[in-house]
Design brief:
Blueprint: E1 18-23, H1 28-43, E2 47-52, H2 57-69, E3 74-77, H3 86-94, E4 99-103, E5 114-117, H4 120-135, E6 140-146, H5 152-163, E7 168-175, H6 180-193, E8 199-202, H7 205-217, E9 223-228, H8 231-238, E10 244-247, H9 250-265, E11 273-275, E12 279-281
Parallel strand pairs: 1-2, 1-3, 3-4, 4-5, 5-11, 6-7, 6-8, 8-9, 9-10
Antiparallel strand pairs: 10-12
Helix pairs in contact: 1-9, 2-3, 4-5, 6-7
Length: 295
């Protein structure tokens, strides 16, 4: 198959395509994203090299530099911080290695080959709209437990806060660093400082379970809205522990990223920025949630 000229082993057509995947962390989302990327690469006969940046932008740059030195044909990156990615994109461009992003896209997409994204502002906004409908115009206090600063978390929490109605006031906003224990500590502090808290937005379901532990221990009836759509997250919506979640499937994102990357290398037309769906899930539409993770 003809592919774009690149430094990697697949460029000359004498070997299979070599893809590099630089993941951003080790949360359930990231683990499931890796499974989807790996499964789709293997299904299409591509070699896959992987690295994990552990939520560290400096490590991410080193990982990308290593992938360039290993002469991959294309890079897929779940970035830690989209604002800190510019230097790495420049290095990939100079090496003539196309770079694809997952989940988010840069402000200037002209320097990347493509992205498989979720409208993360909309993810947050969907939860905010549910809060607004549930509050029914009453004055309510809202807390936000963010993930790690940068990229996905900032977009989600910004979308959430920006879409809240005027009667809903954000009284606390702290990062849980995508860590269940840290999120529980944040929730404990939040409920002590704001005992009248009515709702809390948590940037992923794993943290939401930590926050739930804190609220239950305090006897609080705070309603939790969150994101992901994992099997255990959906179970928590079903039994009322979570009020709502926004299904945002890493399996769908990973498949799209690999398929579009390979199509690009094979000089086939693609939609440069491909949107994966995001769906608000409550007790009323649990059957609409897509598969979150490959078995």
């Amino acid at each position: 198959m003809a592919v774009l000229s690149a430094c990697g082993s697949g460029a000359a057509g004498d070997d299979k395509v070599k893809l590099g995947f630089v993941n951003g962390a080790n949360t359930e989302f990231h683990t499931c994203l890796l499974k989807a990327v790996d499964r789709e690469a293997k299904a299409n006969g591509a070699e896959l090299l992987t690295a994990n940046s552990g939520q560290n932008p400096g490590t991410e740059l080193s990982n990308i530099e290593d992938m360039i030195s290993r002469q991959v044909d294309a890079l897929i990156v779940q970035t830690v911080n989209v604002d800190a990615l510019e230097g790495a994109i420049g290095k990939a461009n100079r090496a003539k290695i196309p770079i694809f992003l997952t989940s988010v896209v840069t402000d200037d997409p002209s320097k990347i080959a493509g992205a498989a994204v979720v409208d993360l502002k909309r993810v947050g906004a969907l939860d905010a709209q549910w809060v607004g409908q549930d509050a029914k115009g009453a004055a309510v206090e809202v807390g936000v437990i963010a993930g790690a600063p940068g990229a996905a978390s900032d977009l989600m929490t910004g979308g959430f806060s920006g879409a809240l109605p005027g009667n809903a006031k954000v009284v606390a906003n702290q990062p849980g660093m995508f860590n269940r224990t840290k999120a529980q500590d944040v929730a404990e502090n939040m409920i002590q400082a704001h005992p009248g808290l009515d709702y809390v937005f948590v940037a992923n379901e794993d943290m939401a379970f930590g926050a739930l532990n804190a609220f239950q221990a305090a006897g609080s009836k705070v309603k939790i809205v969150t994101t992901n759509g994992t099997d255990h997250g959906l179970a928590a919506v079903r039994d009322g522990r979570f009020a709502a979640t926004v299904a945002n499937s890493p399996t769908v994102i990973g498949r799209l990223a690999v398929r579009n990357t390979l199509a690009y290398l094979h000089k086939k037309p693609i939609q440069k920025i491909t949107q994966a769906p995001a769906t608000l899930i409550t007790k009323d539409n649990l059957d609409e949630a897509p598969q979150y993770c490959l078995k």
